[in-house]
Amino acid sequence: MFQAGFFDQIRATIESQPYFGLYLLLAYLVLIFGWLATKVLKSDHTISGWALFLMVHLYVPMVWRVRINKRCPYPADGPGLIIANHRSPVDPFLVCVWNHLGVYPRTFRLVSFLMAQEYYTIPVVSWVSRTMECVPIARSGRDMQGVKDCLSLLKKGHLVGVFPEGRLNTGDGVMPFGTGIAWLALRAKVPIYPVYIHDTPVSSSSMVEPFIKRTRSRLVYGDPIDLSPFYADSKKKETIEEVTELLHTRLAELEYPRPEPSLPF
């Protein structure tokens, strides 16, 4: 009874005062921006980090309509190594888009990706990469400095994302991994989170087209991988090769069956 009367009053006020609805909307926006400002001031993230967060979380769900198989398992704090398949230049945004709706306490975290160094100097890409503290690496496969920089970030408690295939995969399945991912995982001694990306936007002729191409993408989060049984023999070649194969298998097995569409919250 009280609720019905209350809303009738609101409706009558809006009808009699045309600008009341506008004032109500403005008050709502002020509350939203006030809440965001409080979050920014209390956060360790930079203004650039929050700007990127807002852009990604407004744009990605709208254009690529990302669905997931379960809540994002990335930790709310502390280090974690994320591995994913790689078919599109937009994959880093898909991997991290729902991490703020993961385990409690839900929090916004940037993911630092290992990326090809030639992209690190492109103006817009450079801003995104530096904001996310991405690590440039040469495509030759001999550049261990990038892997060591990722190890340093993990030791500091960061989330680090790696695409172990090493380049965009235009074929079926998951391409073989280099042993660098096993070296990093064994020395970091952190949980590994496999993520398989389905139906990511691709283009055979342009690196820009995937960013504006609408799709219905899906993420399959696998269970965290614990490598502690391998730590004692982590320097042995056989162990590194075995862990490389294990990580490849755990990611590849997420390809099928494809998940039913579901919301991230």
UniProtKB/TrEMBL annotation:
InterPro entries, alphabetized: Plipid/glycerol_acylTrfase (IPR002123)
GO terms, biological process: phosphatidic acid biosynthetic process
Documented EC number(s): 2.3.1.-
GO molecular function annotations of the record: 1-acylglycerol-3-phosphate O-acyltransferase activity
Residue stretches spanning the membrane: 20-41, 47-64
Keyword annotations: Acyltransferase, Membrane, Transferase, Transmembrane, Transmembrane helix
Record-given protein name: 1-acyl-sn-glycerol-3-phosphate acyltransferase
Source organism (scientific name): Polystyrenella longa
Gene name as annotated: plsC_2
